[in-house]
Amino acid sequence: MGEGCEACRANINVTQKRIKCTQCSRNYHSECINFNNDTASRSEWKCPACTASCRKGGDNKLKLSLITEIKNEITSNLKQLEESHNSLLNEYNNLKSNFEKLQQNVQNGEMKLADLCAQIKKEQQWRRLSNLEIVGLPENSKESTSELIIKIASYAGIKLTDDQIVFAHRVQPMQNVGGCKLQNRTIKDNIISELRKTKGITTSDIGLGGPAKR
Ligand SMILES: [Zn+2]
Ligand SMILES: [Zn+2]
Question: Which UniProt keywords apply (predicted)?
């Protein structure tokens, strides 16, 4: 047993030439595997199975080194991608926070603007409330609008002084419309309510000719 040829499975006769594999120690008929003692060395010979598995191992080693190389390349590419991704992310976050600040500024600006508009509107309303407009006032080249206003007020029973009139002027020259701005609304309201009681005022009431009303 164990003396058989690994190739043909037959016994190896003492008369037959044999060759032993240096790796797996299996025996072969020299004839069966075409071993020629003149061209090959008996001390280095490997059977076809061992030669094949050796080549396969070599192939595997080659494949492994190739795979390792590819893996290293992928790893370094991934690292580069990760770095550029991180820097992009940083940039994005910076932009985002800048944008949010800007948005906040715009919002604050809008709020301030709305406040200002409301304030202006209030002021305009207040100003209008203390304005007195007189319609049907014949224009006299030597007139003093302030004097006329004081006369009208005194007709209404209210003593008006110059410093209570902020300004008095013709609203539109030659159109019999005069106006004045009084110091506050109360003075104006008093004059109007007193004039209402007298059922109107005529120009003769204040020393002028022709009819006139508030
Ligand atoms: Zn054989
Ligand atoms: Zn072998």
Answer: Coiled coil, Metal-binding, Zinc, Zinc-finger
